[in-house]
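A quick aside before the break. I want you to see a complete sequence-to-structure record at least once, exactly as it would be stored in a machine-readable document. Don't worry about memorizing anything.
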Amino acid sequence: TVSMLNVVVAMSTTCLAPIYLSLPQYVMLSSATLTLAMASQVFNQIAEVEFDKLMKRTRNRPLPQNRLSQNTAKVIGGALYLSGIGLLYAGQFSLPVYAVVNAVFFGYLGLYTPAKRKYIANTHIGSVIGALPAYIGWLGAGQPFFSVQPFFAFLYMVSWQYPHFYGILWNCKEDYKKAGFKMQYDPSKIATQSYLGCLGQAISMIGITACNFHSIPYDLVVNGLFFSSMYWHGFKRVNKFKIDPSQENAKSMMLGSYLPLVIFLLSYVAKSFLSHEEMLIQQSI
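That is the input. The structure line, written in tokens, reads:
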């Protein structure tokens, strides 16, 4: 799921770029993103195999069950990493793309993975690293790093991860405690950070709709509708969790994060479609 989400987020930002990738480049970039994400997951499971054995949600993975040796897993992970880099090379992508994909890969393994056993703030570290794929598609289309469009996608993904991850964490908190992970187990603090996550999503949606549409009255209507619906959609689920931090409400908070995410990503596709139509109209004049 994490690997596929990285691909979807990375490729969605190509829809905002004024330059369209060719189909072979699009396939290579999405495949590279997927294989590198898979590689990071393999090495993460190697690093955490002893802890995975202690958790119900992870103890049936191949490594804890000894269905796969760590050496074999290292070969698989290395092959996936090299395949991803090779696909980027074959697609003739720029150095900033290499920089971001490696920042995600090594940041996940070198910062987030060890931080989970040392700092409660590991969730903040993970949210930033997990949101960096938003820049992959944009940079892959040859656009500058310091641009508004990918920043809003990045901000959205940082914000989205709080209600989503905390919903998972709460239902597996005994597992995380047993494995010695330093997580946020205070329901009031979880609710506060998730509230801010919902607000961040809404602000991001305002930004992306402002990038999508150029008619000021239409902007105001669209932004207002998206802000209200997205913030309220997540807010009410977080509020239910704050009042009653039950497993059911935590699951609702986690599942409720998906609908705004789908709407957000579709807005990128809408931008791509509208821009393409405008380009065709201009060419026909």
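Two observations worth writing down. DSSP finds 13 helices and no strands in the chain. The longest helix spans residues 216-243. We'll return to this after the break.
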